[in-house]
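@channel sequence for tomorrow's demo:
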Amino acid sequence: MAMILLLALIVEPQVSRAEGNAAYALSIPASGASVGQEVTVTLKGENLADLYGYEAVIEYDASKLSFKAAKSSIQGSGFSITPSVNGNQITFAFTKVGKEAGLSGNAELGTFTFQARAVGSADIKLIKLLAVSPDSLGTRWTEVRTVTAQIFTSDSSESTSPGVGAPASPPVSPPASGAPVEKVSGGTAELVASSAQRLGAKLLAAPVKTDAVAENGGYLQVSIEVPAGIDMKKATGVLFNPATGELTFVPTVFGQAGGVAVATIKHSGNGIYTVIEHSKTFADMSGHWAKAEVELLASKLLVNGRADEQFVPQGDITRAEFAALLVRGLGLSPAPAAAAFKDVASSDWHAGYVGAAVKAGLVEGMDAGIFAPNSNITREQMAVMISRAMQAAGKPQAAKVKNLEAFTDEGLMSSWAKEGISQSVEAGLLNGKDSQLFIPSSNATRAEAAVVLKRLLQYAELMN
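structure tokens (generated this afternoon):
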């Protein structure tokens, strides 16, 4: 807010007006970067009309990137204000001074520099921008623009095929163990192909089978060769269920091994695995701030719509539904016997997911031995489950509860939830509703749940 007021005072605004067809976007080198290298994102303006100053808000994936610096690209007299960093959001402002003319046409406005810290795909988003001209209070641009940085291991970036990341960093703890596999053929292979066809998916590899079982709560690691240049946002490893003919998501990281592209699947149990490419969109996600995240997870078979073309992003999500998302996302095997709650029957669709969540330490239930599976999950409950999921994936985050005082409603947070909220915020997995409000007791939305899940899986290196 201080930046906006400063811009306004400098240009002595008189009225607010529209900027015609001015538009703003981010750009990033297509070559990607290795862990430890810098990633530079450029903020650009198109069809500008006498732009005198601006304030931009950038959001980045803090699990893959650390922010280093921001600077203006506008020449002439003027100055910028030290970037303000709040969680995984950066606010940066610049203004000209004096009687110098504003910018018109197309121009670079500034650059944001990050350091790559973990392998995978890292989204950087322009969330909003306030543009100011000499005779204008300012106009807001709120159309989200996203670029994705591909980050590779330090020794593999030059040989990585387009669209395929390098090998993952060391696996999550407990460590994954290599599993012996055999190729599946005959009638079973035909069933797998038929299941993919029903989904509208393309098989990227022949199915393989392993009889190995992970020990001590760890992961099996199954490597499958895939074609070079695949789209990681649409590709995923899947587990085939012979009894139902269903293909389900399993954590998968795409990379390189021995000069070929591979998909490394991590799962806790034995079974038949393959890799597919699948694309899913929803009519009601057009223009929505979470469109990219929701449709990425839907393409990977992790989230479903309320109907075929309707995701209902602002709808509520229940405690059972969110527990199921975490269990599927982490690649845990269902465990209905562990769901020892009075209100969870073994025949309930969610019994296996709730039981698996209990075994992994993701949930503890409510008072009086109940889980309340059909109650809507609140934002603070979601934060606690997410913090426990980080621990289960071997990626714990230190809590900094004192930092929660930055939220004006910190006093409304339940005492049992503060540590989990702090861990989720510090890891960049969950933000406040704005820079000052967390709103802990409000129901989480389906869009929020999808975005948090995507950030978690990338943070835990279970997805590019």
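heads up for whoever presents: The two ends are 35 Å apart (CA to CA).
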